[in-house]
Amino acid sequence: MTRPRFLPDNFTLMLIVSVVLASLLPCQGQVAVGFNQLTNLAIGLLFFLHGAKLSREAALAGLTHWRLHLTVLAATFAIFPILGLVLRPVLEPMVTPALYLGFLYICVLPSTVQSSIAFTSVAHGNIPAAVCAASASSIIGIFITPLMVGLLIMPHSGAGVVDSGSAVLQIIMLLLVPFILGQIARRWIYGWIQRHPIAVKVVDQGSILLVVYTAFSEAVVEGLWHQLPLPALLGVCVISAILLAIMMLLTTYGSRLMGFNKEDEITIVFCGSKKSMASGIPMAKVLFAGHPIGMLVLPLMLFHQLQLMVCAVLAQRYANRLKHVASDRAID
């Protein structure tokens, strides 16, 4: 039976189910404590597997393209935050102040790793450079994101002043240490990972679903849906589209103005315009500990789904364009 085109992918459907389940049956009390511990274990396992999957050879092969990496990092940690701040007079009236802070939080997050590399591969971009750029963004974000949250978000969030040193240490233990352990264990477990992609996918998606369920459970208990008017929710969708469109245009035409070839342009677009939900939600749990984060991560969830859908279409367009170019050259 053919899947209806209007139906979202399975992971998106499971995210929706997680939010609905958290709205109807939120975990509370000791159950919530247990879910939080389980979530931390799942996140650690997720980043352990990410470390084990990353080829050091591919990463080293892409290291020499320093100009591309600086461009991706500038888009991720400089242009994105500047855009979030400059557009505040336009964006904040479209949503609530709490949701605007959620968009500002998106702007200071690192790029995705897995999907950036996957889309670059589909589009026939510079894959070694994508591996290096996306991985570097994720690791550097462990240190930069808490600092930027302390500077740009905490003063307006009512969550107090973030202890950047303590937050960075907690994030290192939650994300970076498992990643490094995965790199160390790669020689022994990479073959198993290759033979069991379904198990890896279950960990990958399951950990995010657990985080979403626990985060929204806490927010629902605190009255999330009573504080979120429908116009603000529609505003989140519109702002997500605006933010993604601006960054994709800037990375596309900026890379061309800087003289990058088509393969490098593809890598810059997919690594420089995307934000990581896998890193963003666990970081939010640490950085905003003791405060409901459901309202804060709602824009990230919607932005994440939108970027996946748009990038899937764009990657296919890049691939088709390259096929036409190759075909024209063969005819000539």
Integer-rounded radius of gyration: 20 Å
Number of domains: 1
List SSEs in N-to-C order. Answer: HHHHHHHHHHHHHHH
Biggest β-sheet: count, sense, barrel? none
Mean pLDDT: 82
**CATH architecture annotation name:** Up-down Bundle
User: For the record, what CATH class applies?
Assistant: Mainly Alpha
Distance between the termini: 42 Å
Percentage beta strand: under 5%
| Quantity of strands, as a count | 0
Structural class by sheet pairing and helices: mainly alpha
Total of helices? 15
Instruction: Give the fraction of residues assigned to helices.
Output: over 70%
| Poorly predicted spans | none
Coarse morphology: globular
The CATH topology comes to Na+/H+ antiporter like fold
Descriptive account of the structure:
By secondary structure, the chain is mainly α. The protein has one domain (28-325): Up-down Bundle (Na+/H+ antiporter like fold). 82% of the residues lie in helices and 0% in strands. The chain has helices at residues 10-24, 29-53, 56-63, 66-86, 88-91, 97-107, 114-122, 127-157, 164-195, 197-221, 224-227, 230-257, 262-272, 277-287, 294-331. Helix 4 crosses helix 13 and helix 7 runs parallel beside helix 15 (294-331). The N and C termini lie far apart (42 Å). The relative contact order is 0.17. The model has no long low-confidence stretch (mean pLDDT 82).
Compose a concise summary of this entry:
This protein has 332 residues and is mainly alpha-helical.
Question: What topology does this entry show?
Answer:
Layout: H1 10-24, H2 29-53, H3 56-63, H4 66-86, H5 88-91, H6 97-107, H7 114-122, H8 127-157, H9 164-195, H10 197-221, H11 224-227, H12 230-257, H13 262-272, H14 277-287, H15 294-331
Helix pairs in contact: 1-10, 2-9, 2-10, 3-8, 4-6, 4-8, 4-12, 4-13, 6-8, 6-15, 7-8, 7-13, 7-15, 8-9, 8-13, 9-14, 10-14, 12-13, 12-15, 14-15
